[in-house]
Design goal:
The structure holds two protein chains of two kinds.
Chain A (H helix, E strand, L loop, with lengths): L33 H24 L3 H26 L2 H6 L9 H22 L9 H34 L4 H4 L5 H20 L6 H24 L10 H24 L3 H31 L2 H17 L4
Helix pairs in contact in A: 1-2, 1-5, 1-7, 1-10, 2-4, 2-7, 4-5, 5-7, 7-8, 7-10, 8-9, 9-10
Chain B lengths: L12 H4 L9 E6 L8 H10 L25 E9 L38 H4 L7 E9 L7 H5 L5 E3 L5 E3 L10 H4 L6 E2 L12 E2 L5 H5 L5 H5 L5 E5 H17 L6 E3 L12 E5 L19 H21 L6
Parallel strand pairs in B: 1-10
Antiparallel strand pairs in B: 1-8, 2-3, 4-5, 6-7, 9-10
The chains are: A mainly alpha, B alpha+beta.
The structure holds iron/sulfur cluster (2 copies).
One iron/sulfur cluster (SF4) binds next to helix 4 of chain B.
Protein name (chain A): Polysulfide reductase NrfD
Family (chain A): Belongs to the NrfD family.
Pfam family, one (chain A): NrfD
Chain lengths: 322, 324
């Protein structure tokens, strides 16, 4: 199998690859489904907060309500996934004992800690008009809803983007080599997912921005993903093989189908719901596929050794050392 | 402290981490040319650090049934059986009478496969120059990198830089997120899988360079136990000189494939605190040929992510332009 493009001349043929009994050189991350699920839900929450903030400013109450509620639900789900991965809730608190700029996980924890409360408050504020809620509380909530929702909207983009840095700041070949485009793949995927969720929940009359965000996000994701694969060199291979390959193919198909349905007949509720479901599923498949491809690239020493060999050979041709 | 310079390039790790007047940096020089594969280091490490067993499986990889470094293996002895590519006379008994004088130098490595039985001259002509088989043994360990990715990415500060310039996990602080595991470019650190009930289950574990022993002035257990001085412990500065001298000796003796691994302060991880004299390419021993600390690209990564975040914000705003 020849390495994919990337514009690098094949200085060292793959045939020279050697390894220690085929064992991995780097260790795969010990992360199960919790982590990609956490990333998907985080992206969905972020995109939904953005939609809610925009809807609030442009007087689209149904879109605002669905965005805020989706954000809170997704956030709750992602927190549960994270705690499940860590094993104990107290360990999540342990993450807050320090601020570390060299650790994307530390930075991400703080971004989430800043984003969570306003996002949650904005969702709770939706109770304001609900019958049974005391008048006074209702008024306080009503007043807090907008500032909280806007704050959540402003803090949302980093929530969607940081998980890409989380993956790329590792020695896992297919994650690290993706670092240039992965943030764009993830934020577009978050936009598509949030648009999709709103298509499911919001009447067509108010869902215009959701449709545009969904279609724009889907197209941007497909473009960014294609670019990413070109810049990754041979470490793009795992994105096409095995379970990761199936997930990535499904992601592309679902995302493209979701965008097409939205464009063609997004104003008809049943079609919109179908499109929304496809976009949500596509976004989830992207996270699971990227995570799985990275794990596969770590398990195969070829993806660690061959690019490093090639780099050494290139350095040697540039400046022959004594 | 987190300045760009501290992410890459040669530095004094203990001073960079904020230690005032740290003692000289400590480390290992592992000279694999004298390793006899006795595994005394593996055992001494397990005993001193109370590491549980790794299971009792036969892996079918020569005499290596440990496999790799991990949460319960902090020293690992690799056994490489090589056929048909050695250009080095290790003084092993060969077939036929000893060669009278060094004959023509061996052609490029990997060129000559073991001659089939019954074929002619080479076997008796110069067997010592081209043994058709050789052992490579090497005791691997955490590299205690100058720029340690594991330490950089740890969100809790559980991994810290000691006054000796080494990298140590505090098990009571680690929350088991496992982020350090994929961050290490050498595949060293690992989250201990079990058993349930073990207070260290789910906690990242690796070589501490026997921090407890160092603090009381003793040398690490593995170096102490090594009968051939393949594992040498000491001040990194001095060890680097010793390693360079040993390399010269081996090169002069015709061991062209001998090389130092990790001893250069300007390599991808800023040089390692534990470095090696190898007799073949690093990947033959399961080591990465050109590891680079992943945080080297971190500023660039954060820039890309910021651009993506701004793009998302702009995209969301754009989607509200237009009527429906
Ligand atoms: S070898 Fe790996 S575990 Fe050891 S200090 Fe370097 S990055 Fe950390
Ligand atoms: S597993 Fe422990 S030592 Fe490793 S990064 Fe997470 S908190 Fe730090």
């Amino acid at each position: 199998m020849s390495p994919r493009g990337g514009g690098e001349p094949a200085v060292v043929p793959d045939a020279e690859f050697t390894s220690y009994y085929g064992r991995p050189v780097v260790k795969p991350a010990p992360w199960a489904a919790d982590i990609p699920a956490y990333m998907f839900a985080g992206g969905l929450a972020a995109g939904s907060s953005l939609l809610a903030a925009g809807a609030d400013l442009t007087s689209r109450p149904a879109l605002r309500r669905s965005g805020r509620v989706t954000a809170l639900a997704a956030l709750g789900f992602s927190a549960a996934a994270l705690v499940h991965d860590l094993g104990r809730p107290s360990r999540f608190l342990n993450m807050m004992r320090t601020v570390k700029l060299t650790s994307p996980m530390s930075v991400g924890t703080w971004i989430l800690a800043l984003y969570g409360p306003p996002a949650g408050l904005a969702a709770v504020a939706e109770l304001a008009g609900v019958p049974g809620v005391p008048r006074r509380l209702g008024r306080v909530l009503g007043a807090l809803g907008r500032p909280a929702g806007l704050a959540a909207g402003l803090l949302a983009p980093p929530v969607a983007a940081y998980t890409a840095v989380l993956l790329s700041d590792t020695a896992t070949p297919s994650w690290h080599e993706a670092y240039r485009e992965l943030p764009f793949v993830f934020v577009s995927s978050a936009a598509a997912a949030a648009g999709g969720a709103a298509l499911l929940a919001v009447p067509a009359a108010q869902a215009g921005p959701a449709r545009r965000l969904a279609v724009g996000g889907a197209l941007a994701e497909l473009l960014a993903e294609a670019r990413m694969e070109r810049s990754m060199g041979m470490t793009a291979e795992p994105l096409h093989q095995g379970g990761a390959g199936r997930l990535m193919r499904a992601a592309k198909l679902l995302t493209a189908a979701g965008a097409a349905l939205t464009l063609l007949a997004g104003r008809r509720r049943p079609v919109a719901a179908l499109a929304g479901a496809a976009l949500l599923a596509g976004s989830a498949c992207t996270r699971f596929g990227v995570v799985e491809a990275g794990l596969a690239s770590a398990r195969d020493p070829r993806y660690t050794v061959v690019p490093q060999r090639r780099r050494l050979a290139q350095a040697a041709t540039r400046s022959p050392r004594a | 402290m987190a300045g760009r310079h501290s992410l890459f390039g040669p530095i004094d790790p203990a001073a960079d981490a904020g230690w005032v007047d740290p003692p000289p940096r400590k480390g290992f020089f592992t000279d694999t040319s004298v390793c006899i594969g006795c595994k005394a280091c593996e055992v001494a490490c397990k005993e001193w650090n109370l590491l549980p067993d790794d299971g009792f499986e036969l892996l079918g990889s020569s005499y290596d049934n440990t496999g790799a470094l991990g949460s319960t293996t902090w020293r690992h002895v690799a056994f490489v059986e090589q056929g048909g590519r050695a250009s080095v006379d290790l003084g092993m008994p060969g077939l036929g009478p000893p060669a009278p004088a060094p004959a023509a130098p061996a052609p490029g490595a990997g060129a000559v496969a073991g001659a089939p039985p019954g074929s002619e001259p080479p076997v008796s002509a110069a067997p010592a120059e081209r043994p058709d088989f050789r052992w490579l043994m090497s005791s691997d360990v955490c590299k205690h990198c100058t720029h340690a990715a594991c330490l950089d990415v740890c969100p809790t500060g559980s991994l810290f830089r000691t006054e000796f310039g080494t990298v140590v996990v505090q098990p009571d602080v680690c929350n088991g997120c496992g982020y350090c595991v994929p961050a290490c470019p050498y595949g060293v650190i690992e989250r201990r899988p079990g058993p349930a009930g073990d207070p260290l289950a789910g906690i990242a574990q690796k070589c501490t360079l026997c921090y407890d022993r160092l603090r009381s002035g003793a040398e690490p257990a593995c170096a102490k136990a090594c009968p051939t001085d393949s594992i040498q412990f000491g001040d990194v500065e001095e060890l680097r000189e010793r390693a360079a001298a040993r390399l010269d000796v081996l090169r002069a003796a015709g061991q062209d494939e001998a090389r130092l691994y990790g001893a250069e302060p300007d390599d991808g991880v800023g040089g390692t605190g534990a470095f090696f004299l190898l007799l073949d390419e690093p990947e033959v021993y399961g080591l990465p040929p050109d590891p680079v600390v992943t945080t080297k690209d971190l500023p660039h990564m954060f820039n890309r992510a910021s651009a993506a975040a701004v793009a998302l914000l702009a995209g969301a705003a754009l989607s509200f332009l237009g009527r429906r």
